[in-house]
């Protein structure tokens, strides 16, 4: 058996990213541990995930100019993350009330309801539901 355990999102600030994912999106903070870079500098190992989810997001603070340039553009302006929820309307309203930036109005597609939003770093996500 195999499954995707983590995917990384490069962010500017750990605490701001944690707040966005836990408060605005309702994710759980699965881990926030001290760690070190390959050359010994301090960093944090921060993982968030949707409640009940197995795949998490590693929130990786940008380290250096190249990584800083990727913040918010990890998928070259395309939607790169897809958050499926059980109750689309309730999730959309909760996220709007929390200040999440939506890039249009919800629409109905053959696969369900969808609306694009940006995360704290500027990456595009699809919010999906029935």
Tally of contiguous helical segments: 3
CATH class: Alpha Beta
**Could you say which overall geometry the principal axes of the C-alpha atoms support?**
globular
What's the story with the biggest beta sheet?
5 strands, mixed
The radius of gyration is 15 Å
Q: Report the CATH topology name.
A: 2,3-Dihydroxybiphenyl 1,2-Dioxygenase, domain 1
Can you give a write-up of this model?
The chain has 130 residues and is α+β, with helices and mostly antiparallel strands. The chain has one domain (6-129): 2,3-Dihydroxybiphenyl 1,2-Dioxygenase, domain 1. It is 21% helix and 41% strand. It is built from three helices and nine strands, in the order E-H-E-E-E-H-E-H-E-E-E-E. It has helices at residues 14-24, 65-70, 88-97, and strands at residues 6-11, 28-36, 42-49, 56-61, 79-84, 101-102, 107-109, 112-118, 124-129. The strands form two sheets. Strands 5, 6, 7, 8 and 9 form a five-stranded mixed beta sheet that branches. The longest helix is centred in the N-terminal third of the chain and has 11 residues, at 14-24. It starts with 5 loop residues before the first strand and ends with a strand. The mean pLDDT is 96.
């Amino acid at each position: 058996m195999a499954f995707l355990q983590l995917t990384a999102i490069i962010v500017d600030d750990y605490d701001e990213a944690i707040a966005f994912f836990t408060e605005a999106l309702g994710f759980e903070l699965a881990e926030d541990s001290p760690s070190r870079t390959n050359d010994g500098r301090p960093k944090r190992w921060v993982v968030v995930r949707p409640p009940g989810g197995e795949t998490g997001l590693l929130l990786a603070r940008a380290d250096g100019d190249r990584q800083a340039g990727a913040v918010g553009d990890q998928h070259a302006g395309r939607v790169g993350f897809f958050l499926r929820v059980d109750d689309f309307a309730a999730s959309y309203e909760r996220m709007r009330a929390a200040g999440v930036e939506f890039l249009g109005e919800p629409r109905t597609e053959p696969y369900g309801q969808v609306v694009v939003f940006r995360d704290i770093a500027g990456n595009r996500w699809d919010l999906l539901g029935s």
